[in-house]
Amino acid sequence: MTFKRYHIPIAPAPSRRPWTRVNVHRDLSRCLNCGTCIDSCLYGVHDRRDADTRFMEEPEDHLCRVCFRCVAECPVNALSLEPNVEFTEAGNGLFKPEVLRTIANEAEGGRIPVTGACYRGPFGGQGFDGMWTDMSEIVRPTRDGIHGREYISTSVDVGARPTFLDFRRGGPWTPPRELPVPFVLDVANPGAPPAGILASVVKAAKALDTYAIVPARSWPAVGADLQGHVIVRLSEGETTGFEKTAGVEATYRHGGADLVGLRRSLPHSIVSLRVPVTAYDRDAVDMALEAGVDLIHYTADWKDVDSIDGVNTYIATLRDLHGYLVDRAVRDTITVLASGPIAAAEHVPKTIILGADLVGVDLALYGVMECVPPNHALHLGRFPEDFPLSDVPWGTQRVVNLMNAWRDQLLEILGAMGMREVRRLRGDMGRAIFQDEAEREAFADIKVLAPAKEVVAR
Length: 458
Ligand code: SF4
Ligand code: SF4
Description:
Layout: E1 22-26, H1 36-40, H2 69-73, E2 79-83, H3 85-88, H4 97-109, E3 131-133, E4 156-158, E5 177-179, E6 183-186, H5 195-208, E7 212-215, E8 230-233, E9 247-251, H6 259-265, E10 270-276, H7 282-291, E11 295-299, H8 308-327, E12 335-339, H9 347-353, E13 358-361, H10 364-368, H11 374-380, H12 392-417, E14 432-434, H13 435-443, H14 452-457
Parallel strand pairs: 6-7, 6-13, 7-8, 8-9, 9-10, 10-11, 11-12, 12-13
Antiparallel strand pairs: 1-2, 3-14, 4-5
The structure holds iron/sulfur cluster (2 copies).
């Protein structure tokens, strides 16, 4: 058998409502139509009118990278840049305007975004910003890059990985399913999607060779050829009729969810226990282990991670979940899928370091599908209702593109860490420094000196 390198088929899927960071304003009472700004701008914001080349066309604001070169070089100061309020007020929580714009750009072309004007984000903070990853190998990159001969594997397993052979149990054993990417598309978390978005996401799951989690009430709309890529999230009381799907997911509630019965009725399907951060306790983990389910799907509703305290709780709880499985020496008997606050490519390795085997991409799908209006979509927590089926190829390609951009960034990070497979990153806390812990450690023994003015007064 010949070796075939995993490849994600990216293609252009242009944004229809491109994010515009600034409005480029040309004062027509001053403009000389000299065309200097056409040469100043590397990004094609300025041009002449097709119909009459003596005059300048309206600037294409969405292409502007805010470098101010045209503003500086205009001989009569006719140009100015103003923040676009629709952009600055978009999104919430982790899905800030720049994050939404980055998602849209990644979905558009499938490439790693390059700002070209150095990193302008924070170097520390709370939540994921308070986690610094080990890049010690970045000074010694692979000989020929992340796509070269030194293959870096992004494959992960779903299901128990036996650490020894057990002949006592008998019966058929279902080996873990190998996914080529550590991503599952969770279209059930943002709500009940319209048929077009559902079809786009499930088709993207097939193209990526992974799974899409869909709500049970949307399930009948999924075509027969896609059923093997679907995990159905059950509503309360539903247990049968999903034999042809890849799996099912029940939601954890204290004393509820007949997981053992579900496991028995679907011995070869993926059975997942969805555990929202607000309901998490170690009983949920015990319940999942006892029933022999394949997945614990640890997740958060957007409202739970809307504040930085919510994200900190999410992180602490994921660490607890992983630590508990390690302490019980059962970490390889179950897979942990973490979804919710995964808003950017950097959150993927960080979530895996915290203990997840793979991540669920859910709320980011709003950004991919250009929810309308974009500045309210996340607040409302729903997809737009009108998404015609003719848009499905476009929607599918955008999801595929986003996943390629995130996978490439994961490969870059793994390469910079000197790691050859993402499986090894799971729960490897030594690969991260937690800012608050590091500061406590560094400054714990330092005595607070008297304020400077007191010293002077003495
Ligand atoms: S450089 Fe200034 S004056 Fe010349 S075309 Fe541009 S805006 Fe008008
Ligand atoms: S500010 Fe820079 S990117 Fe924006 S229009 Fe002017 S030259 Fe182009």
